[in-house]
Amino acid sequence: MFGRRKPDEAVMCGGTTRRYDAGAPKTITSNNMILFDVHSRVRDYIDPADIPKGKKLITSIEAFAVKSKQGSLLRLCVNKDRYTRNTDEVYAGHVKEDIFSKLTAMAKEENMAAENGRYSFTHGLPEDFGGSIRVKFMSGEYINVTCNQSPVITTNTADRIWNIFSKALEGEKVERPDVSEITKIYFEELYKDGFRRVTLDITEDGCECFKSAKYSADSKLYESRTEFAKEELSKILDIVDKHDILTLEGLPREFTEISGGKTLEFTLKNGRKIAVLSDFVVPRAIHDKLFKIEMALK
User: Fold this and answer.
1) Are the beta carbons of 265 and 185 closer than 8 angstroms?
2) Does the structure show a pLDDT above 70 at 289?
3) Is the model more confident about 59 or about 151?
4) Which of 30, 49, 106, 260 shows a CA-CA span of 20 to 30 A to 232?
5) What is the pLDDT of residues 89-128, one digit of tens each?
6) Average per-residue pLDDT in the chain?
7) Cα separation of 169 and 92, whole Å?
8) How many whole angstroms separate alpha carbon 72 and alpha carbon 143?
9) What is the pLDDT at residue 293?
10) How many angstroms separate the CA atoms of 280 and 297, rounded?
11) How many CB atoms lie within 10 A of CB 36?
């Protein structure tokens, strides 16, 4: 597949690393898309005469969609000011609509696989100068493109992505339990030679929380039980609530060399258990929030 630069092979600032996957398909025949992950700079220069009155045009876009058992998990981030990222507009949600037939049709019509297999990275360029495309199909077909020197999608493609995502995010959302229903939070991390297991038991009125921990290392087992600060519990529940963590069960899994070693599980008052695994395919922003929960349980 792709060649790899040797670890001791230095790359000078301004130098470009290039790889090409000759086997990457340039025409997609599948209709069973399961992942759409695109971010790109779109417009570097905008003629004021091209801007409709009262509107701003998209200058960069990040769009993530993964198929779930309940529908589509979506995250959309657009910028309409090419001089700063401080004006990013972020929209996210888990919707019941399956938007992948629309995304598949758009990907084919916009010929997004034309540069499939291309990797070109110039060292020293500013972030978000170019972009990347990562699309996967259940059949095994894929689109992988990375170029940090220039946009990887056209302005028309960006506008179509915006329309598909924004309309879907206005639709019916996947139902989720209220965080007040959580009675237990369980975290497990498996190591090569041991494990770490942490359980938070929340009293029925939510006023108290106790942390039980088990650690195994060097063939020794360590156990402890302490009261868990209510302020820290509140921070965890706030993340779970704001970022729809309780809707993440049943997502596709992405096996990597570091995947499969962590489990975060929530038990509800009715006995239902909702598990979130570390190798679930989720937006980077959600990974960051899950990591914050993990750190709070240390």
Assistant:
1) yes
2) yes
3) 151
4) 260
5) 889 999 999 999 999 999 999 999 999 999 898 888 777 7
6) 85
7) 7
8) 19
9) 94
10) 20
11) 27
DSSP state letter for 174: P
Cβ–Cβ < 8 Å for 155, 61 = no
Please count the helices (runs of H) and the strands (runs of E) in the chain. Answer: 4, 14
How is 227-248 classified by DSSP, letter by letter? Answer: EPPHHHHHHHHHHHHHTTGGG-
Sorting pLDDT into bands at 50, 70 and 90, what band is 193?
confident
Q: Which two tokens stand for residue 8?
A: 């001791």
Asked if residue 80 has pLDDT above 80, the reply is: no
Rounded-to-integer distance, Cα 233 and Cα 251, Å: 25
pTM, two decimal places: 0.79
- Kindly state the tokens that stand for 260: 């499969």
Distance of alpha carbon 254 from alpha carbon 270, whole angstroms: 30
**In the numeric block, which tokens belong to residue 15?**
């130098």
Q: What is the pLDDT at residue 250?
A: 79
The domains located in the chain, with CATH, are: 16-169 (no CATH), 179-296 (3.30.1560)
188 with 214: CB under 8 angstroms?
Answer: no
Which of 82 and 257 is assigned the larger pLDDT? 82
- Cβ atoms within 10 Å, residue 113: 21
Q: What is the pLDDT of residue 194?
A: 83
**b/e burial code for range 126-164 (CB count within 10 A of at least 16 → b):** eeebbbbbebbbeeebbbbbbbbeebbbebebbebbbeb
Q: How many CB atoms lie within 10 A of CB 210?
A: 13
- SS3 (DSSP) at 285: helix
